[in-house]
Amino acid sequence: MSSIFVLTTRGLETISADEIAALPDITVSSTSYRRINAECSGSLALLLNLRTVDDVYLTVGSWEDVLHTRDMLAQFNAWSDHLEVTQAAAQINSVRPIPEKPKFSVSVSFIGKRNYTADEVKVSIADSITFNHGWAYTPDDRDANLNIRVFIEHEQAIVGVRLGTHAQHERLYKMVERPGALKPTVAAAMLRLVDVQAGQRLLDPCCGSGTILIEAALMGAAVQGGDNDPDAINATRQNMKDAAVQGEVEQWDARVLPLRDSSVRRIVTNLPWGRQTVVNEELGSFYQQVCSELERIIHEEGRVAILTSVPHLLQFNYLQPVQTLEISLFGQNPIISVFGRP
Hints:
Elements: E1 2-7, H1 13-21, E2 26-32, E3 35-40, E4 55-64, H2 72-80, H3 85-92, E5 103-110, H4 118-133, E6 136-137, E7 146-153, E8 156-162, H5 184-193, E9 201-204, H6 211-218, E10 222-227, H7 230-242, E11 248-251, E12 264-270, H8 283-297, E13 298-308, E14 320-326, E15 335-340
Parallel strand pairs: 5-6, 5-7, 9-10, 9-12, 10-11, 12-13
Antiparallel strand pairs: 1-3, 1-4, 2-3, 4-8, 7-8, 13-15, 14-15
Helix pairs in contact: 2-4, 5-6
């Protein structure tokens, strides 16, 4: 039995917990701020297929009475002497090859004010692991075989070793980026909210660099999307090629879509917020016209999921809100809104 914890975007905890619980031999034990704790009695490799999570770690320690004072730096060093990192490395070696004496990096995050910095905590932990296990520390996570993560929440800390080679939100297909590009894990969560199924048609009328389309295509959906910016179309096509998926992508105006009435069952999109991308007209008018067009093309049994920081601009005549979810993204708190017909 392996204890794990999974980190996710704030606001997506329930969605990620549901995705984890759907895997065989996984039992979710608790959910808290940005974190899901679970037990795995089967293959760890399946955890690398999770789409809505930022990262997966094998739990190697938990610390209590983590205070804000500087004398905690010595305590972090002492606690680290007892971390079960060698056992974790052996377990991870069953998923991907790990050298006998691996290079390792340390990541630290905490909530609230402290009289020490994350970098100082990293040094305390790295010194202990280097001394006790002979592993080589590197500050560059990209150069490391293993990443040790310390997640401090108030007076508690949980420590883990990353299961994968890189953070799971870092999709390898995201080679061409654009301002306001959507985080892939958020795109995957939005698709789950509207229950996108393999073979189902999925539309993104403002596709940007194609994150939603690619995540849906990887789920087996038949994807179609477009954007008014030719550079966005080129970025989407290149990213889809890198992800080895196919779909229909064309340049269009989301306010006047070349699609039949009631022809689409699932629409998922990240509308321009006004700060991430430029809309060359008054934002309220743009939203009003796009909403009218989405309402025209959505099937009577369809669902629409929209991410925006201005949800009050989403106005429909017939579609009703089914669910709303506030998340943290780009230093803001946008809302995912799901709509459907009564």
